[in-house]
Input
Amino acid sequence: MNLKQRIKNYSTASLLLLFTSFFLIFAIKPSVELIVSLFHEQEELTNIDKTLEIKIQNIIKAQNTYMTLAENIDVLDKALPQKMRITDIKQLLASSSATINSLSIEQQQIIPSSADALTPIAISISTQGEYTQIKKFVGFLFQRPRIFTVEQIQLGKAEGTESAQLKTPMLISSYFYAPK
Output
């Protein structure tokens, strides 16, 4: 093979290699990068779709719960009022045939906080009466539409009496709902 033929072959091979490299760098590489990025994007979008589907299902459940509770919203408002109403406690005391010796209500901040909150109110009541009167008072407490929780109750004989009078100090909690 002569020298010119070899130079021509090497030149052709070099140009072919140069064009192939150029083609790989400027045509195929961006296409491959685009394909890889599209696969990653598809994977991310699939994960986002799954997350959104879960959130949609949770919203549907919350909506169903709301629809169920919407029928009884007035009952819920009575059980957890948005204002601290002393009239509920007055009605409770007026219904009692037992004697109320003392009543104290824990000081409570009734200004709404930064988040929705269920705020407890501690009520300390000391009653005196016969067992049936005390039982009726506690029973009436549980029949009220407002939520009352008896935290502590003590039964003891009333001092200075010969009758069946009982002295009953109680710690009761009630609640009100303070929306922000």
Remarks:
- Residues 3-70 form the longest helix (68 residues).
- The chain has two domains: 1-71, 80-178.
